[in-house]
Automatic annotation (TrEMBL), chain A:
Annotated ranges, domain 2Fe-2S ferredoxin-type: 2-78
Keywords attached to this entry: 2Fe-2S, Iron, Iron-sulfur, Metal-binding, Oxidoreductase
Organism: Tepidicaulis marinus
Protein name, as recorded: 2Fe-2S iron-sulfur cluster-binding domain-containing protein
Annotated GO MF terms: 2 iron, 2 sulfur cluster binding; metal ion binding; oxidoreductase activity
UniProtKB/TrEMBL annotation, chain B:
Superkingdom of origin organism: Bacteria
Keyword Oxidoreductase: yes
Transmembrane segments: none
Annotated Aldehyde oxidase/xanthine dehydrogenase a/b hammerhead domain residues: 20-140
GO MF, one example: oxidoreductase activity
Protein name: Molybdopterin-binding aldehyde oxidase and xanthine dehydrogenase
Pfam families hit by this protein: Ald_Xan_dh_C, MoCoBD_1, MoCoBD_2
InterPro entries documented for this protein: Ald_Oxase/Xan_DH_a/b, Ald_Oxase/Xan_DH_a/b_sf, Ald_Oxase/xanthine_DH-like, AldOxase/xan_DH_MoCoBD1, AldOxase/xan_DH_MoCoBD2, AldOxase/xan_DH_Mopterin-bd_sf
Keywords: Molybdenum, Oxidoreductase
Organism: Tepidicaulis marinus
Oxidoreductase among keywords: yes
Length: 155, 787
């Protein structure tokens, strides 16, 4: 079986995978980083979003082998040195989560969104969330949280 | 009052783990030596099983065992049960067909469970499942439409004509009489579309049998682990109740779908003893679509009688409700006692009569989904009231106002006794917030942009905290509907609350602790809320029906009463004061009118040392429990106003304004309550505009079996919502709470459809009002009718 090596949350990791092993399974089952979730089997829900080389990617639609040599950040790695990322803080402050299942993917998507779009407005946030489903919050407070974090990070 | 007390928008404590990816959902748990399960599911809607050949599957790499219905039967396991027995008009009991864990003779829907394949890895189990050869003899599919037609195939032998029950409620004669006197009548045919709950966390289970202790542990995505344990032990016979521990850890949303006891977790628990290893099963989303219990799916005809002035005289409703292929845990209650009883809405309607035929079809079981029966009732009432207004030239707000129940308590003709409410207050506030007066100008302005603008109302009432136990028992419930709480105070004064409620997004770890903080003056970090584990919480009924505030927190309230009473007694003896003079305030016991005071930890430590008070009179220790059985349902109500714009070129409906003014009684945490409303609204608007579980009439195949085909509401489908509260304090529980979890999904669908039909000037459009349907409606109404 091929071996993949990548940096996950700042640590170099490697493991044997099958050619068909998805990145999300490598992360959850082999690295035991269970913050990244699986909510669907059609790449629709975004519960599995991680960063590969700083970009938000659905880890259920990426082979582990495709991330060979890459820098991967999962939700567990977002709070650098233990301090919450502004987006994490904003999700708590604005009640952007209920059951928490979509939350890791939402937060990872939001971090990338803010990086790409420094001038976020509500409409853009809503459109950018096209690939992330939440069944609990009605999105209202997720949008609020992302806008607040974006403002804070711009300041 | 503590800074974390009742009414404060305290930020959620559970968030700290979720935002860091440290939640622990069932699929995040792995047991040593664990195996993986995959279910072989029926590809047919309806078929006889001629034979099952396991030879190849058993020989496949990594396979540990393959079980079928024969093995289940050999071990003497019974099938799953429905916990509510409904009776037909003629007094006969509903006709419950068997609900096997694994189907042995016949499959009844696409996704029905045929075999359990257990292997070392999930991939191996999946591969082996493909090698299970089932020889089926297909039978015709049965749909909601054709179920009761003569010659339809029979889903269950026990239920001729596929009729499970023919239920009625209300006074038929009085209602007929009301219609005979009516100056005006209105009628409407309505479909309540089938929905797939789609909690974002798919269902999962781990069964783990400990041979040393002869004990089972089942981790499962459940809203009510104690009920699961009871059903699995008392009815299915997996293990005696005291030998089965059910743990529902972090659960990623439920919305009803995780109330029920399903074949999958049952099979994993049972089979873990057979193979002597833990078994893990996690649904993929496609399985969730096929095999989670769905919601709604009614066809109804309703008629409303009015007098000359628009006063309602009577309501008649006839409904055909799809129960799916098997009765699920509460499915018989949903289209009956959770539905017919809400048909009076917010109105004083002297006579109501409703008939419901519950029918079997070859579709996934249908059971409670956010709102459970109340959205279906509200849809009937609020659509027909709107129709009555339009057809008779009344303002939709004023016809409602004229007919509102205005004095309380109010006994409706359909069981419910409304204890309190102020329907005009929520209507008036909604009219103001939504700027109803300015609507004609906005409509005109929209028309200039080529858009069709419409406005729709829904003044809903619903019933939460279903109770009291004896009353629901007399209506057919197989369980009590109280809740339990145990408050344990440690010697250091820290508090652990064991609640029978379960949190899967509702934020109980915060709101329940707020109540304890309010009562004791302790900071939140000194209070722990424990739920979801039958090994730690003695018993509980779980979370559904928006019951955890009004029922679950009331139990905690009562348990704290007892803790406080005992602690005050101890404090009084410690301070040599009269018990009546001792008060608990801001975390200290003080003797009124003196400077004598003992802190909470000083008293709690004394409770455990047994020093300084008479232990012959007062037992040492500080731990109390309460079982709280509510006196009545609670009745949340409110007014939703939806404003939409339709692009006639595309048929796309845009929600431009949505106002929800609700009466939830006392609110513990407004931030969390608003979040519950937001989520409910999106599910309700999702039903009205996007979501539809469709089975093909001919083949019985689920046509909407993935997020590619089933339109889930997304962030860009909505504007921000305008919320407000007009509370009246519920008299039937100690804190005056009502329930907020489902109201959004109950009130909103008719508001949306009323807005669309208003914009288009048509009587009805079926839900979901997709662009295709709206566009077609525009084309039809634009075509001049043939002379
Ligand atoms: S799990 Fe990756 S998009 Fe749903
Ligand atoms: S918080 Fe539950 S799915 Fe988003």
């Amino acid at each position: 079986m091929p071996v993949v090596t990548m940096t996950v949350n700042g640590k170099s990791v490697s493991g044997e995978v099958e050619g068909r092993t998805l990145l999300v399974n490598f992360i959850r089952d082999q690295l035991n980083l269970t913050g990244t979730h699986v909510g669907c089997d059609t790449s629709q829900c975004g519960a599995c979003v991680v960063h590969i080389d700083g970009k938000a990617v659905k880890s259920c639609a990426t082979l582990a082998l495709q991330a060979d040599g890459a820098e991967v950040t999962t939700i567990e790695g977002l709070a650098a040195g233990g301090d919450l990322h502004p987006v994490q803080r904003a999700f708590k402050e604005h009640h952007g989560l209920q059951c928490g299942f979509c939350t890791p993917g939402m937060i990872m998507t939001a971090v990338d969104m803010i990086r790409r779009k420094p001038e976020l407005d509500e409409k853009t946030v809503r459109e950018e969330l096209e690939g992330n489903l939440c069944r609990c919050t009605g999105y209202h407070n997720i949008v609020k949280a992302i806008l607040a974090a974006s403002e804070e990070m711009r300041a | 009052m503590s800074e974390w007390g009742i009414g404060k928008p305290v930020r959620r404590r559970e968030d700290d783990r979720f935002i860091r990816g440290r939640g622990q959902y069932t699929d995040d748990i792995n047991r040593p030596n664990q195996t993986h399960a995959v279910f072989v599911r029926s590809p047919h809607a309806h078929a006889l099983i001629r034979s099952i050949d396991l030879e190849e599957a058993n020989a496949a790499p990594g396979v540990v065992a393959v079980f079928t219905g024969k093995d289940v039967a050999e071990d003497g396991l019974a099938g799953l049960i429905c916990g509510w027995t409904v009776h037909s008009k003629d007094g006969s009991e509903m006709k419950a067909g068997g609900h096997p864990i694994l189907a042995a003779e016949k499959v009844r829907y696409v996704g029905d469970h045929v075999a359990l394949v257990i292997a070392e890895t999930k991939a191996q189990a999946l591969a082996a499942a493909d090698l299970v050869l089932v020889d089926y003899e297909p039978l015709p599919a049965v749909s909601l439409k054709n179920s009761t037609e003569p010659g339809s195939a029979q889903v269950h032998e026990e239920a001729p004509g596929n009729l499970c029950f023919e239920w009625e409620l209300g006074d038929k004669t009085a209602t007929e009489e009301a219609f005979s006197k009516a100056a005006r009548t209105v009628s409407i045919d309505l479909a309540n579309n089938r929905l797939v709950p789609n909690a974002m966390e798919p269902r999962a289970a781990i069964g783990d049998y400990d041979a040393g202790r002869d004990e089972y542990t089942l981790w499962t995505t459940s809203q009510n682990p104690h009920v699961a344990r009871l059903v699995l032990s008392a009815f299915v016979g997996v293990a005696p109740e005291h030998k089965l521990r059910v743990i529902a850890p972090d659960v990623g949303g439920g919305f009803g779908s995780k109330i029920f006891i399903y074949p999958e977790e049952t099979a994993c628990a049972w089979a873990s003893k057979k193979i002597g290893r833990p078994i893990k099963w996690t649904a993929d989303r496609s399985e969730a679509f096929l095999a989670d219990a769905h919601g709604r799916d009614h066809l109804s005809h309703a008629e409303l009688a009015l007098d000359e002035d628009g006063k309602f005289l009577g309501l008649k409703v006839k409904t055909k409700a799809n129960l799916g292929a098997y009765l699920s845990t509460f499915s018989a209650a949903v289209p009956t006692y959770l539905y017919g009883t809400l048909l009076s809405g917010q109105y004083d309607i002297p006579a109501i009569y409703v008939e419901v035929d519950g029918v079997y079809t070859t579709t996934s079981p249908v059971d409670a989904y956010r709102g459970a029966g109340r959205p279906e009732a509200t849809y009937i009432v609020e659509r027909i009231v709107e129709t009555a207004a339009r057809e008779n030239g009344f303002d939709p707000a004023e016809i409602r106002r004229m007919n509102f129940v205005k004095t309380f308590p109010h006994q409706t003709p359909v069981i419910m006794n409304y204890d309190i409410g102020d329907f005009e207050a929520s209507l008036d506030k909604a009219l103001e917030v939504a700027d109803y007066a300015g609507f004609p100008d906005r409509k005109e302005e929209a028309a200039k942009r080529g858009k069709l603008r419409g406005i729709g109302f829904s003044t809903y009432i619903e019933a939460c905290g279903i109770a009291p136990s004896a009353a629901v028992g007399s209506l057919g419930a197989g369980v009590g509907l109280w809740e339990s709480a145990e408050v344990q105070v440690a010697p250091t004064g820290k508090i652990e609350v064991f609640t029978g409620s379960h949190s899967h997004g509702q934020g109980h770890e915060t709101t329940f602790a707020q109540l304890v903080s309010e009562r004791t003056g302790l900071p939140l970090e000194d209070i722990e809320i424990i739920h979801g584990d039958t090994g730690r919480v003695q018993f509980g009924m779980g979370t559904y029906g928006s019951r955890s505030g009004a029922v679950g927190m009331s139990a905690i309230f009562k348990a704290i009463d007892k803790v406080e009473a005992k602690a005050r007694k101890i404090a009084a003896q410690l301070m040599e004061a009269a018990e009546d003079d001792v008060v608990l305030e801001n975390g200290a016991f003080t003797v009124k009118g003196t400077d004598k005071s003992l802190s909470w930890p000083e008293v709690t430590l004394a409770a455990y040392t047994g020093h300084g008070f008479d232990t012959a009179e007062i037992e040492p220790g500080l731990k109390e429990s309460a079982f709280y059985d509510p006196l009545n349902f609670t009745f949340p109500s409110g007014c939703h106003i939806c404003e939409i714009e339709i692009d006639p070129e595309t048929g796309v409906t845009e929600i431009v304004n949505f106002t929800a003014i609700d009466d939830f009684g006392t609110i513990i945490n407004p931030m969390i309550v608003e979040g519950q409303v937001h989520g409910g609204l999106v599910q309700g608007i999702g039903q009205a505009l996007y979501e539809h579980g469709i089975y093909d009439e001919e083949s019985g195949q689920l046509m909407t079996g993935s997020f590619m085909d089933y339109c889930m509401p997304r962030a860009d489908n909505f504007p921000g919502f305008k919320l407000g509260f007009t509370p009246t304090v519920c008299p039937s529980n100690p804190m005056g709470m009502k329930g907020c979890g489902e109201a959004g999904a109950i009130g909103s669908p008719p508001a949306v459809i009323n807005a669309i039909t208003d914009a288009l000037g048509i009587k009805d459009i079926p839900m979901p009002a997709t662009p295709a349907r709206v566009w077609a409606a525009i084309q039809n109404s634009a075509t001049p009718k043939a002379a």
